[in-house]
Design brief:
Blueprint lengths: L1 E6 L10 H4 L11 H4 L7 H14 L4 H8 L8 H10 L4 E10 H10 L8 E5 L1 E3 L5 E3 L16 H14 L4 E8 L5 H5 L6 E4 L4 H11 L7 E2 L5 H13 L1
Parallel strand pairs: 1-2, 1-6, 2-3, 6-7, 7-8
Antiparallel strand pairs: 4-5
Helix pairs in contact: 5-10
Length: 241
């Protein structure tokens, strides 16, 4: 029996939002107001599609984007945490469920040599077109009213667990590590023995504490983290047990 670690990516593994970081490649490192104001809530992926067209139109090439993305800092303590998980892979399965995209996550993990730590990455598929433009698609279709149109993290996690179960794999405990509002849906599906680890001061922590105040708390344990050292301390306790 292993433990399953589920990570969000932006503001969790890395200390920034990869989608907004890419704007450093734009002329004057900013987007025109018309483009910036074109975002509609729940439709982030389409908005990023327009950002990538703008970058392509301005001659921003793949190698420049890659160089820029691999300068994003990891969250405090995260490099040590991922190293620790990598050394203990026989105890941990580890996945990413993220609203970023396959290209950005792949670049960042490979540049830091962490791609082998993760068994699977569930995120919006991206690729460079024949003309050299980055394109991004929705991860899937879903019917969850709480989640953005392109990705229901709860559905992605459930499908992964179902697939593992079919192969005879079940987990002693699921540890969900994230920061954002879109992490609440999968956290709501966790069981009593599981643990949600929201990042201190971020939306997920606020939403979980709001639910507790409304007397409809989440069904799992909650442990807040501010540095990945906090997460590592918890995992070390887990494997000692």
């Amino acid at each position: 029996m292993k433990f399953l670690l589920v990570f969000d990516f932006d503001h969790t593994i890395i200390d920034e939002n990869s989608d907004t970081w890419i704007v450093k490649c734009a002329p004057e490192k900013k987007l025109p107001n018309g483009l910036k104001n074109s975002y509609r809530p729940g439709h982030w992926t389409e908005y990023m599609g327009r950002v990538f067209v703008y970058l392509g139109d301005n001659g921003v090439k793949e190698d420049e984007m890659k160089r820029t993305m691999t300068t994003i800092p990891f969250t405090a303590g995260m490099v040590d945490l991922l190293g620790f998980i990598g050394k203990n892979k026989e105890l941990f399965d580890c996945i990413i469920v993220s609203d970023s995209n396959t290209v950005f996550i792949d670049w960042i993990l490979k540049a830091a040599d962490f791609h082998k730590v993760f068994d699977e990455v569930f995120t919006n598929p991206a690729a460079f077109s024949s003309t050299g433009y980055l394109t991004v698609e929705n991860f899937h279709a879903h019917h969850c009213a709480e989640c953005p149109k392109n990705l229901c993290k709860g559905k992605a996690l459930k499908e992964f667990l179902d697939k593992q179960s079919e192969q005879g794999v079940s987990y002693t405990q699921i540890v969900y590590i994230g920061d954002g509002g879109n992490d609440l849906c999968p956290v709501m599906s966790l069981k009593k023995n599981d643990i949600a680890m929201p990042r201190q001061g971020y939306t997920l922590e606020k939403k979980i504490s709001q639910l507790a105040q409304d007397l409809s708390p989440v069904g799992c344990s909650v442990l807040v983290w501010s540095s990945a050292v906090d997460i590592m301390s918890y995992l070390k306790l887990l494997i000692k047990e």
